[in-house]
Every structure is written in C-alpha cells, then in structure tokens.
Amino acid sequence: MAGTIHEPARETPVIGEYDVIVAGGGPGGICAATAAARAGAKTLLIEKYGFLGGIATAGWVRPLLGVRPADGQPVIGGIAEELCREMERLGTAAPYDEAMPSGRINFDAEGFKFAADNLVGGTDAHILLHAMVAGAIVQEGRLTALTVESKSGRQAMLGRVFVDATGDADVVARAGASFALGRPADGRVQALGNVFQVGGIDESRYPSKEEQEPIAERMYQAIEADEVRSYRWHAGHVGPDPLRGQRTYNITHIGGDPTSVVDLTAAELQARQDVWGIMDWMRREVPGMEDAFMEVTSPAIAVRESRRMVGLEEVTLEDLVSARKREDAVARCSFSVDIHCPMGRVKGRGFTCGTHCDNKACHMFTDHEAELPHERRIGGGSWYDIPYGALVSADITNLLACGRCVSADHATMSSLRVMGPSMAMGQAAGEAAAMAAEEGIEARAVNVMTLQNRLRHNGAAV
Ligand SMILES: Cc1cc2nc3c(=O)[nH]c(=O)nc-3n(C[C@H](O)[C@H](O)[C@H](O)COP(=O)(O)OP(=O)(O)OC[C@H]3O[C@@H](n4cnc5c(N)ncnc54)[C@H](O)[C@@H]3O)c2cc1C
User: Fold this and answer.
1) Is the pTM of this model over 0.70?
2) Which CATH code, of 3.60.21.10, 3.50.50.60, 3.30.428.10, 3.40.50.620, is assigned to 14-182+381-457?
C-alpha cells in the first residue's frame, strides 16, 4: 500500500552537547574526530556499526590507496600516518616506511578497527557506536542538533559545528542541504561490491604472476558463458603477512542506488550469490585453492559512490587532469579517475567507465559520449589539491563534510574517494570544525591560511 502516515510529534531526550559532532566513523570521520578533539573541541563521533573503519572494516577492502604519486613524496601524513603506524605496531599492517614507495599500505581489517579505537580513544572525543543518524534540526540556516536511532530509541545531541563523514552525505540530506547523486547522464553511481576474504590457500602452489594470466582468461570465458558472475579474476590482495594463506578478492559488481534500502537489500543478496559462485569456481580452477574456505564476506555491501554534498567549491575533472595546485588547499589526492561501471556490468574485459571502455553499445556511447572522461590520469603523474571550499556546505553555515561525500564532480569523486585522501580531508575538516567552534564563526569564515599552518604543524601534507 502506498501513501504516507502521520507520526505524532514527540519529545526527544537530549543526551549531550558538543562543540563538534562528527557523523560517520570511517577513515574520514576517524581523522576528523581525532583532529577536532586534539584541537580542544568537545567532540562526539557517531557510528552506525559496532566498530569504526567504514569501508576499510565494514567493506573489507584493502590496501590503503592514494598515499603517494608514483614518483613523488607522500600525499598523506598527520593522523592518517599515525593510524597506519598504529596498525604497524599491532602487527596488522605493512611497515609504513617500507610500504610507502609502492603507493599502497597493506593492512588487516581487524587491525584497522582496533587501531582506530586506540587513535580516537587516545583523545577526549566521545564515541557513540550502534547509533544511526536519523534526523537533523536546522534553525535559520544553522544545524543545531542531530537525532539518532539506536537500541535506546530516538535521542538528540546538540552541536555547534558538524562534520558529515557518513560517505552518503546523510547529514547533508537530512538537513535539507543541496547534494548531487550519480552522473549527469542517468543519475547512476558506480557499481557496489562485496569484497570477500578467503582462507586456507596453499601459497606454495598459488599461481605465480605469469600463471595468473591464463586463469584470468578462463574467468573471462566463464563469465561470458554465464557460469559465474564476476567482472574479473585477480590475484587477490594480501595483508601484511603474504604467507598466511589469506587473500581478499575485489571482483564483484552490483548496480544500485546506495540511498535506496530496497536496492541495498537486493545488492546484498545478489552479492552473496555471486561470491559463493566465484568461490566454487576458484576452488576448481586456481591451484592452491582446492581446500580454501570462505572466511568473511564484507559485513555490508561496499559503496563506492553516493550523495555528493554541494559545497562552496567543487573539485572538477579539469582540476584533476591539470594537477591543479591551489592556495586554499587543505588536502592532496594522487589517485586517478577510477569509475567502476555504473551499469554494474560484469561482462567484457574492462570494468571502468570512460572512452576507453569496449562496450560501445552502452547508452553512454550512443547518447552521452561527450560526458565520458577521455583523460583519467593526474597531469604529470603527481597530485591535485582539494580546496577548503569543497569541504564546506553551500547552504548550512556550520556544516562540513569529508571523505567520499565532499563537493566534487562524478568523475573526480571516483579519484578522491579512496582512503588516503579521505583521511587527509578528515583531518582538515576536524581541525576546521574545531576552529569554527572555538571562534564562534561560520565554517566559511575559517581562516584557511591559519588552518593550513595548523594542519602542517600536525604533520599533514598540505
Ligand atoms: C568495493 C570497494 C573497493 C574499494 N577498494 C579500495 C582500496 O583498495 N583502497 C582504498 O584506499 N579505497 C578503496 N575503496 C574506497 C574507500 O574504502 C572508501 O571510499 C573510503 O572508505 C571512504 O571513506 P569515508 O570515511 O568517506 O566513508 P566510509 O568508509 O563509507 O565511512 C562512512 C562511515 O559512516 C557510517 N555511517 C554512514 N551513514 C551513517 C549514519 N546515518 N549514521 C551513523 N553512521 C553512518 C558508516 O557506517 C561508515 O562507518 C573501495 C571502495 C569500495 C566500495
């Protein structure tokens, strides 16, 4: 039955009052809450799951990317580096200094969770887990409170400055601030995916680099013959200990809108069908995997792209391609455009969207070719700057965002979404939020030069 119902008005208990409230405890939110608390702001970090880490831990993805251009200096530092070094100390990530030249930091999801607990827990920030931000109270263009739904019912917390680190710009949406969703042509976002970890692999017999190509070829044939639903076979990502016989596979593509609970449900069910089918195939086809077993499918379907806040400034493909450097930079991104097919396509030999795709029958070629990115790399192979204005809501004066829901166009968001830049933006947003709260000013009035100096002082690469 369609239609609406009228819910009676009710009194909602206020359970706290804060200088800075960060919604979402993923890579961006962890760094934002840590930065804000260290800057002296009374800070609350709200997370819907029972653990921190976002897609690093709920999506089971690795390695940490976007940390360094192929031929340059690290583009992360500060709190992101601390988190990596804490994982290293726990024995759950590759040694930071040794891994950095490769541009990727291998880690274990469990280590990420615990390191995040230790990092945020080492500050005065309060953490509220199992609490889903459900509403936002706005008065005269300012956000005054968030409401959460949890096992305790509906509760509210008051704040002076807010950081949306939900990845989905949930706070932006609930506050009625403007956002974009999907690419202009058809509103579709990048494919969702379930990254799964397999254990019990006999690494001594696992295919060498040369032996992997024929397996990938057999996988393409199996996909074409509808024997398996995947978009490729790859060697799998290993954690800090490559000999442990565990690998994670990022080889599923599911189409869908991550802001629709119906689509999310369908995606979860489809993904598990696909993953178990792939698992059977790998046991049959990949040497060393005969006795392998499924250790974990990602606790939640992993979302590459969702709502993008409309900010004071938008980071664009032109900025990326020209490796634009800016005076108002607060973070750097060294990761290229990486749009996983928004149609959720699994057939064919390419899986990213752009003029390079071989699926010329796609409506993006027949009807919207001008919108397809021609150039996907950062000019000179270096980095582009992310300006402060991309972190500040255009509508709500005390609302910032960080991570994959900042103000960027569809193509550029596919680059700055990875964990390195998400964490760098998190530190910047948290520091800026603390400054705005302390000075009692609007987020847009934060002095960017002072912000940059504070970020540099705290180790960030700006
Ligand atoms: C399949 C896949 C593979 C990827 N592979 C890699 C990779 O190899 N390397 C890499 O660096 N990046 C990779 N990424 C990208 C990267 O993991 C994310 O883009 C990154 O985690 C973004 O960080 P974030 O903090 O902005 O968002 P998220 O990691 O999404 O964190 C958002 C947090 O907010 C919480 N939240 C959401 N809504 C609410 C709410 N209403 N109330 C309370 N809490 C809420 C979520 O539970 C989550 O903890 C991959 C992404 C996907 C989908």
Assistant:
1) yes
2) 3.50.50.60
